[in-house]
Amino acid sequence: MTLELSHLQRRFTDFPALDDVSLAIAPGEFLALLGPSGSGKTTLLRILAGLDYPDSGGVSRDGEDFLAMHARERGVGLVFQHYALFRHLNVIENIAFGLRVRPRRSRPSRVEIGERVERLLKRVQLEGLGSRYPAQLSGGQRQRVALARALAVEPDLLLLDEPFGALDAQVRVTLRRWLRELHEDLGLTTVFVTHDQEEALELADRIAVMNNGRIEQVGSPEAIYQQPATPFVCEFIGKINRLSLRCEQGRLAAGNWVLGDDPWQGRHARAIAYVRPEHLALDMPAAQPGWTARLRHVYLAGSIAHLELAVDAPEQTLEADVASEDLARLGLHAGMQLRVAPRSAVVFPQAQDGMPVPGERWTWQADAAVPR
Amino acid sequence: MRRRILPGFNISLGYALAYLGLIVLLPLTALAWKASGIGIAGLLHLLASPRTLAALRLSFGGALLAASINVAAGLLVAWVLVRYRFPGRRLFDALIDLPFALPTAVAGIALTTLYAPNGWLGGWLATLGIKVAYTPLGVLLAMVFVGFPFVVRTLQPVLESLERDVEEAAESLGARRWQTFLRVILPPLLPTLLTGFALALSRAVGEYGSVIFIAGNIPLHSEIAPLLIVQKLEQFDYAGAAALGAVMLLSSFVLLLAISLLQRWSSRWAEPAR
Amino acid sequence: MSMHAPARAPDWSRRLLRGALVLAAVGFMMLFLLLPLATVFVEALRAGVHAYLASIRQPEALAAIRLTLLVAAIAVPLNLVFGVAAAWLMTRFEFRGKALLGALIDLPFSVSPVIAGLVYVLLFGAQGWFGPWLDAHGVRIIFAVPGLVLATVFITLPFVARELIPLMQAQGSDEEQVARVLGANGWQMFFRVTLPNIRWALLYGVLLCNARAMGEFGAVSVVSGHIRGLTTTMPLEVEMRYNEYDFAGAFAVASLLALLALVTLAVKTLLEWRYGDEIAAHAPGGH
């Protein structure tokens, strides 16, 4: 089952929720819609579910007009952010609901419904809890009931709206892994909405990064992380250092560090370079371009050490990441002087108003062998 | 001795007890005393009397039916007021309390005039062969009138705080509108509906002013129990009046207890689950 | 959760259902609420404005108005003080028998008005407990104003308390405790801290209490004796005129009461609209 979303527009009274959104969803893939609040991801999900309709644009499933079908007929399973379990029904009745409301003709027999529910309970690891009510379950258990309920109607498409948002960190991690296993087991096309990038990067086959109703970039987690396509993606995903560059004599430079030849042939006077913390070399030899920086502070966060570097010219603070075990090996301690330079960067020219121009991205890689 | 942080316990307790004792407890004790004065034989005689039975049947039966109608109509009205926007909604919302604010005698004569054979509605209904004024139907009507606000006002806050995502979940699972309503929306409303029912019932059973004008007040046919009590008082049958009053109170109490138990049962799954 | 009404594809069945429901509800409300109200005024003015005014100016009517005002003027303040005391007691202290006390306060709400009048006749009537004693001392309660006041007090007892209790419960006693710690004595704390916090709910409760007090019929009817000009309140006057077939006259007095009801509703709505959260007007138990 392929889904084709084309040029979806949806506007609420004061702001555009979806602005010319087009996307193709491959059969069986696990797609994450990632973005900050108000980016339109939930709206997109609700349109797929049939709980909302776009102002213009279309969705087709295997060539058929998906939007013309009522939510009931779409074969979609939806898991809500706050589970939306039926409080007055127990777990079994909740899961069986979608099967019980089917018209006589297409309704399975009572025995069959019972068996299906039992199988689902096993799959979501809630055997024995069938007669409990939602009020008697933990958050993680409720979430699994919600999932089982959505799966009971054997949907072609599974939609999850921030499924783990309301759970504790530990439970979240466990359920995340479990969801991925479930997906691999079932092979169901799944779209899930999240604002947690770690979750998206860890779980998804592909990520669609959204902002202000537009899709900024669609790609695999590696592509999103290593080759961010727009300034927003650079700044939203992971940590990033932002550098201002100037075009001088046909070359891009920031202070003592020279990036290379100007790829835009003088059309822009200024540019912005985005450098990931792990792509900062800390031990540049004096012969090569770089900055002098003082290591102001070392923040230890588990296996990674975040280094706060104070650069004099141009005056700014950078963050570099190294493995904690490398701290001793490299002899790094607070207060010392270092020569730093980026090893790779994503560069955008800067327009007159100071905003980066997304259309003219340039990725740069240091060509000379640079010490780690 | 444990000192209380806030002052006024003794004074407010004393005052409240004295006040309640004088205004409520003492008179009710007198009722119980006087009622017991009738003796078991007298009580049985009273209860066996066809007139008494007819009056009790009308008062309680009518009230039960009226409360049921109020639950249905009240649900409809509360639903429409909470869910939909239409011109004049605020006005109607304010008017819901009219039966509560309007003096019962005023309601009584207004309803009677309206449904009398020569009244606006009464005349029209007469052509259909339906007599309302001076019949048990009129009694029912007046009871529905006075009990109406209770159901609506009890339902409104609950309907307003209904979580929409449960309805959307049902829809996404394939339920049709009426299935969603019956299986998902209505069951959690049951305790509230019962509360409204109980309030409307209490009010209707003891209602006097609104009913007395539109009822025919014909013994054995359209005479309500409170009127029978008044009759007995006028005939100086204090014991009889007291006994009948006590019977009414006890019956109401039993009814309300039953409803309260029903409520407890139906809300066993309700709990702030979020 | 869903912060917007979804833009539906044209769903005629849904719109039709909605329209039908709205129509049914509005129709019911108009039939049941507006028509009786309209009837009162139409009938009152049936013989013309002059006859209407003359009817109201009759001495019996004026006496009834005076009496109604008098009874309310005594009963409402009494229940106001009680309501405040009871609310203070119930929401600021823990003690055994609290539930029982709460039930007692709510009791008059579920008692038939006739029974409310009956119990006072049984106490103070000619054959009542205190009847002979009162007779001997020439004190008349039943068939006199004190009886009317007592019956009205009984009926309207819960109104103020029912308004205040949920609100004061929700507000908690933190502010009052702080006041005490800062050195305020009991009355200072009450007038400077408690009262300002509950004033709108108090007003609301007084409003409802007053409306009921002025409009009470059943209980008052039993204890009054229907002595025209002396123990006849406005609702009783309405009944009397109606029974004498003076329909226009009955509706004339009734219209005044109806106006009172409308004013009550208007003020009530205004208070709810402006001070809604300070009233906690949605305590289940209905209004």
What this model shows, in words?
The complex is a heterotrimer of chains A (372), B (274) and C (287). Chain A has helices at 41-49, 91-100, 110-123, 139-152, 169-186, 197-203, 221-226, 231-236, 326-329; strands spanning 3-11, 16-25, 30-34, 56-61, 64-65, 76-79, 157-161, 189-194, 206-211, 214-219, 241-248, 251-254, 257-261, 270-275, 280-281, 291-301, 304-311, 316-323, 337-342, 344-350, 362-365. Chain A is of the alpha+beta class and 372 residues long. A six-stranded mixed β-sheet of chain A has the order 6-7-8-3-9-10, with helices on both faces. The radius of gyration of chain A is 25 Å and the shape is elongated. Chain A starts with a strand and ends in a 7-residue tail after the last strand. Chain B is an all-alpha fold. Chain B has a single domain (40-273), classed as MetI-like (MetI-like fold, Orthogonal Bundle). Chain B is built from 13 helices and no strands. Chain B has helices at residues 9-36, 39-48, 50-83, 89-95, 98-101, 104-115, 120-127, 136-160, 164-172, 177-206, 209-214, 225-234, 238-266. The two termini of chain B are 41 Å apart. Chain C is 74% helix and 0% strand. Chain C has helices spanning 12-44, 49-57, 59-92, 98-106, 113-124, 131-136, 145-156, 158-171, 174-181, 186-215, 218-224, 234-243, 247-275. Residues 1-7 and 281-287 of chain C have low confidence and may be disordered. The A-C interface holds A 10, 12, 46, 51-53, 55, 67-68, 80-82 and C 1-2, 4, 6-9.
Which terms would index this structure?
heterotrimer; A: 372 residues; alpha+beta; six-stranded mixed beta sheet; six-stranded antiparallel beta sheet; 9 helices; 34% strand; elongated; C: 287 residues; mainly alpha; 13 helices; globular; disordered N terminus; disordered C terminus
